[in-house]
Structures are given as structure tokens and as C-alpha cells.
Amino acid sequence: MEQLLDVISEKVGAAFEAAGYDRTLGRVQISNRPDLCEYQCNGAMAGAKQYHKAPFMIADAVAAELAKGEKRPDGTVEESAFESVESVKPGFLNLRLKPAFLAGYLEQMREAGADGKWGLPAPEKKKKIIIDYGGPNVAKPLHVGHLRSAVIGEALKRLARYNGQDIIGDIHLGDWGLQMGLVITELRKRHPEWVYFDDNYTGAYPEEAPFTVSDLEEVYPFASKRSKEDADYYAEAMENTHLLQEKKRGFYALWQKIIEVSVADLKKNYRNLDVEFELWNGEASVNDVIPGMVDKMKQDGFAYESNGALVVDVAEDTDAKEVPPCIILKSDGAALYTTTDLATILDRENKYDPDEILYVTDKRQALHFTQVFRAARKCGLVKPTTELVHIGFGTMNGRDGKPFKTRDGGVMRLETLISDIDEEMKKKIETNPEIGAEEADRTAKQVAMAALKYGDLSNQASKDYVFDIEKFCSFEGDTGPYILYTMVRIKSILAKYKAQDGAVDLSELRIGPARSGAEKTLQETLARFSGTMQNSWKEYAPHRLCAYIYDLSNDFNSFYHGTRILVEEDREKKAGWIALLTLTLGVLEACTDVLGFSAPDRM
């Protein structure tokens, strides 16, 4: 189904052609002066130089053609889609749609909505995409710093999928570096009796891990702190990291248990955020890819030694700032994040042949990804056509403008943050005497999820934002709970209508022409759905979808407050309004599902 702007532009383009001008001049846009018109076309301004005519003369001629209606191929004339067409000097065309035409377009949306896409067209070419948006380290709990990557990445994956793309999400665990050597070193000092540390042991290792995730969460920071204070301890951890990466039997078996316990906990926490990954790969998964990749880089003459390290030059003549060489191996031969990221790109290229790979990380990693992407292209790790994109996000700050912390200044665990929002929302939900304790608990979690995700996603990803729990949990203003409250209101009206009119089939109702300015505004906003969904994906911008559903909610509530829907005596008029509400709810549900939350039946 075509976007409404495309449909209108076709009609205006045909009028330009009928008047003797290039039909491509008929591109229409939403008016930036809604007090004057709904849509506008500035094509006459662009055509003035081409045709050596005053722009208002071109606009007058086009307006006259539009007033006649559109000629069909069989010679008959289709009634004009426009309620008014005004040529305004120096050459603008101001347009207003006929309510019946707009209602007809929305009916097409409803008829196309059986698949849940509401007329959103499939892409001309489906892309195969991998999105890398997790990046937590194992043996460490998720903290608030992991929130944005998870929430933004999940929304982008859902956006891509809704737009018909073939996309795979990969968590890309930090599971193979020094942190693993540190954990193994400390566990060995505390439990030298474990069979994992017995070089003479040849039997099967225990099925049960000898530690819990809580144990690991205490061990890692302890080991990390000690390594910075004790040079011998650090050297031992480095050696143990090397032995692990050489797959020393006991160390490797212990590492597998660390992964098993950590991943189980990560899955639980991500599940609480309604975030899922198709792939649970980590840096370790490409360890065997690195040697061959490095050898080829050397053989092809791209990698060379500099101060003992192996590097690839990635600077370009057009660089405004210095871009240092990409370090492939350190002077001691150890791999770095750049190494594993390059090996991961190569591995993804070989296994999945993607058209695009997206990385959702802190924007402060921009230089790292510039180096990695350039090295990958220079060394032929990807096809020239493979897009490599870094989507950098800003920090989540407290009210003091600094990165969000606990009251005592520590880094807050993500599950603590979620629990705090759940509790804040439960207090609000419990004020409704009709909702019992169990339902209140379930509803609070649902609304809290909307508060958390919408609070993050409504901000442009690249910008820092202030996490304000009171604001995010408010039922008024630009918040997730406000969006859900609007949806619950619509659900309530539809339920009451069904109760009034018996077993009515809502799908058989038809949207009628708008009878008020508020109703027409709501209809026009609904008609923007496809364009918004497509542009939100094209620009990797979930915040645009948030802005859209906020506008849609506001427009619905303006219509609702000025329209006595359920007490309307004219059955046809009431049925048209109910049909409009079903479309509004369907569009809101599609959008919130893409953003990663949903509405309860009541609040």
C-alpha cells in the first residue's frame, strides 16, 4: 500500500503534467503551517527557472487542473481528492484533503491490517542484517550501563523485522580476555584443591559448577582490584589468560562452567527486559579464526610491525582528525578488542554473508569502530557492498548530569533499577481499588517496562539524557505510561461498545469522513503510519516512532474529549468512530510492540 504522501504527490504530479510541466515537480509534503493548510507543494518554485515563468503562474495553472479532478485512463474524470487547493504567491500550493478521500485511505489501511502491518509495504529488496547490541562481560552482573545497548538494539531489531528485513541479533559476550584470567587466578588461590587446577587429573570434570553467579560477581572485582596493586598477581593473571586461550584442559573446563553460570543469569535479566538474542556468541567463538586472519593480513602486505606490535594503517587523506593505525596484535602477541572484532566480522561474513552489520554501543567507541571498519575493508574481510554501521549512543545520567549511580556512588545493577521502577509504578496502580494485588503486580511490571523503555527510546540515541524515575513513571506528558493509558482508554471504549451492541464484528464497521477538526487531525496522523515506520528504520531512529505515538495519543485524546462516542444516537456515525478507534489501537499496538512494550487491559 502506498504512503498517503506518495498518493497525493501522484495526483499533484499528474496536474503539473496536465498543465504542461514536469510531473516530478508535484512532490507534496506535510505543511509546516497547519493553520494555513494540511499539505503543501513547492514545485512551482523549483520549476520557475526551468520554464522561465513566474512561479505563481505555474501554481495557478496546476491549481486549476487539480480543481477539475483527475482524468482516468478510460477518459472519465475522478472527483478531486482535495477539499481546497490554493495558489499562494510567490508560488506555493496549499492543499486540504476531502474528508471522504482520507477516510477511504484509512479503510484501505484497515483492510490491509490483517497481517498486523496496516498497509506497510514490503521492501523492494530484503536485506540480511546482523545487529550486535549486547556486549556484557561474563562473570559480572548487568548494570545500568548495559540498558541503552539492550533497549536501543532490541528496538532496532524489531523495527528492521517489522519493515520486512531478515535480521539476526548477536549479544557478543566479553568472554575471552583478561577478565577470565583474573577470575581463574582468584578461584585457584581460593580453591587450589579443585580438580580443574590439578595438572595430573585426566577424568571427567564435575557437571555442576562449584560456584554461583553471586560468587563470580564477588570474585571478579576483588581480582581486578588486586591486579592493579600487585604486579606479580597481574602477571599470573596474564599467564593464566594465555593458558586459557591455549585451551589448557582444566582452565578451559572451568571457563565453560563460568560461561554456563553467567549466561543463565544474563538470559534471566535480559528476559526481564523482554530482550532476546538469536546468537549468544562471544569473543571466544572466533579465537580459532584469528591466526589465519592475521597470517593473511601479513601475506597481503596490510599488517606490519611497529614498535613490536602488529598494525594496519587506516588513516585517509580526507580525515579531519588523526586516525591512528589499527593494532592487530600487541607486542607480546596478545589479541585485543580490535582483533576479536575483526575476526568476528570475518566469521559473520563467511557464515551469514550479510548485507549489513550494525553495532549498537557507547558513542565513545566511535574511533575504535572507524579503525575496525576501515581495516576490515582494506584487508578484504568483507565484500565491498557490505555495510558496516556504528550506532553510538550517549550516556544515561542522573539528575546531577553525571552518569547514573546508586545513592552511595556505586554503579547500579540493572535488576535493581528495574525493581525500583516496578515498585514506583505499583504504588500508582494500587490506587485503583478495582485492581487486585496480583493484577496490580502484573500490571505494574508491564507499565514499568513502558516507562523504562520509552524514557530511553524517546531520546535521540546519540544524545545523553537524564534518567528521572518520577517523570518517566508519570501518567501525563511524553511518557510510556501516558501512551499505555491512552491504549487502555481505547480498549475500555471498545469493550463498552461491544457490551452495548452485542456480538458486533468490529472488522465490518467502516471509518466515516471526519466531522470535526480533531477527528480529521487524528485521521491524518494515522495515515502517516507507514512513512513513520519506514523512516524510523531507515534512519535507525526509534525516537521518531516514539514521537509519532505521542502525537497519535495526543490527537486521539483531543478527539475523545470533544466527542461523545458511546452516547451518540446516530448508529452509523458511532460505528464510524468505533472503526476509527480500532485502527488507532491497532497502530499503537504495532508501534509499542516494535519499541518493546505492550498495554494491559486496565490501569
Estimated helix fraction: 40-55%
| Sequence stretches where pLDDT stays below 50 over 5 or more residues | none
Radius of gyration: 30 Å
Shape: globular
At CATH level 3, the topology of the largest domain is Isoleucyl-tRNA Synthetase, Domain 1
Would you tell me the structural class of the helices and strands?
A: alpha/beta
Account of the protein in words:
With 603 residues, the chain is of the alpha/beta class. It folds into four domains: 4-97, Arginyl tRNA synthetase N-terminal domain (Gyrase A, domain 2, 2-Layer Sandwich); 128-172 and 283-397, 3-Layer(aba) Sandwich (Rossmann fold); 178-254, no CATH class; 414-595, Isoleucyl-tRNA Synthetase, Domain 1 (Orthogonal Bundle), CATH 1.10.730.10. 50% of the residues lie in helices and 10% in strands. It contains 20 helices and 15 strands. It has helices at 4-18, 43-51, 55-68, 99-111, 147-162, 178-190, 213-229, 231-245, 249-272, 290-299, 337-352, 366-378, 414-429, 437-457, 469-472, 480-501, 517-527, 529-538, 542-561, 571-595; strands spanning 28-30, 39-41, 70-71, 77-78, 82-88, 92-97, 128-132, 166-170, 303-306, 309-312, 326-329, 356-362, 387-393, 396-397, 465-466. Strands 1-2-6-5 form a four-stranded antiparallel beta sheet. Helix 2 packs across helix 3 and helix 18 packs antiparallel against helix 19 (542-561). The chain is globular. The two termini are 35 Å apart. The model has no long low-confidence stretch (mean pLDDT 94).
